[in-house]
Each structure stands twice: as C-alpha cells, then as structure tokens.
Amino acid sequence: MVYRLNEATAELTANDPAFFTAAPGSGPRHSAFHPNRKWAYSINELDSTITLMNWDAAKGVLSLVATEPTLPPGGDVTNNRAGEVIIDKSGRFLYGCNRGAVEEMLVYSIGADGRLNLLIRVPFAGKEARHFAISPDGGALLLAEQFSNRVSIFSRDANTGLLKITSNRYDVTTPSCIVYA
Questions:
Q1: 17-74, pLDDT tens digit by residue?
Q2: Residue 79, phi then psi, degrees to nearest 5
Q3: FRET partner for 58 with CA separation of 20 to 30 A, picked from 16, 105, 111, 163?
C-alpha cells in the first residue's frame, strides 16, 4: 500500500495507484529502501525471492525491475521461508535470510543499476532468523534466532560486505527484533 502524507495535518490518503501488485503467491514479508531513494527491495516469504522495484517518489509508484531467488536452483521452496531484508548504510550491500529448509544469511552486492549479485550464503546453527540488524559502526550483524532462544553475532567486513559467524551467542527468550537506540 502507498499513502501520501500531509505533513501539516499528519493525514494519510491513498495514493493513485494505491498499491504495488506483487507476484501472486510471492508473499511479501519485509521491504527496504535503498539510501539513494530510487530503489526498493521486498523479500518474499512464500516463494523465496527478492524483488527489486524502482521507486518514483514524486508519483508514489513502485515498478517491478527484477526478481531473484533466495535459494539455489532446485532449492526446497515448499519448506523454506525467506525472512528479513536490510541494506547497509553505504548502499553497497543487501542482507536477507532463508528459514526452514535452510537456515542461512544471504549477502548480496548491489550493482549500479540496483540489481543484486549473491556474494555468499552463511549458514548458522539456530532456527528461525526472525530479524537482524547491523551495528552502528558497521562491524557486526546481530541475528535474532527466535526458535533457538538466542541472539547470534556475525562479524561484518564493511568493505566487502561479507559476514562470518562468531562464537558470541546470547540467550534471549524468543527474540523477534533487534534495534539499536
């Protein structure tokens, strides 16, 4: 759904068109806007894909550019659920995850045209990557593993975007969100 905001009154009105139509059965779960404000990405839970859209802020319109699978060819889409999607501050890297069939973090580079290039799949030992966030200094990614009752820490190379699981894990009952204040 897309709404226009009247900043003076804080009133929302439906845009025209009022929504972006995702592929039937894709199940958009989370979205993230690129820092350049030209692109948006949606990770789709049901068909394990990531959709790249152009964003026209003046018109309030998202338009489809490309859709990439989060699983390798032959992956178990039926038992997988793609989860979260975030973009680092530099706008050079996008992070996503698979849950269920495989439990893994996905690291993509973002091309000059917004298209994604998968750099690495990083398996983790927990279950149900519910949410994750990059530390303010960019050197770590914290992962809420909801069904494992813990938060795991990945080291992150800000130059390459690559992640490496560390042995740092913290017991937290059903974590579902990571926020830096």
A1: 999 999 999 999 999 999 999 999 999 999 999 999 999 999 999 999 999 999 999 9
A2: -105, 10
A3: 111
Q: How many CB atoms lie within 10 A of CB 33?
A: 14
Three-state secondary-structure class, residue 48:
coil
pLDDT tens per residue across span 82-107:
999 999 999 999 999 999 989 999 99
pLDDT band at 123 (very low <50, low <70, confident <90, very high): very high
Closest CA to 56 of 42, 40, 36, 38: 38
Beta bridge partners of 123: 104
The partner residues of 44 in beta bridges, in order of sequence, read: 28, 49
Q: Is 110 helix (H, G, I), strand (E, B) or coil?
A: strand
- Best CATH choice for the domain 27-171 from the list 2.170.30.10, 2.40.128.110, 3.40.50.300, 2.130.10.10: 2.130.10.10
Query: Sign (positive/negative) of CA torsion 150, 129, 178, 174?
Result: negative
d(CA 33, CA 177) in angstroms, rounded, equals 19
**Which burial class, exposed, middle or buried, applies to 15 when counting CB atoms under 10 A from its CB (0-12, 13-18, 19+)?**
middle
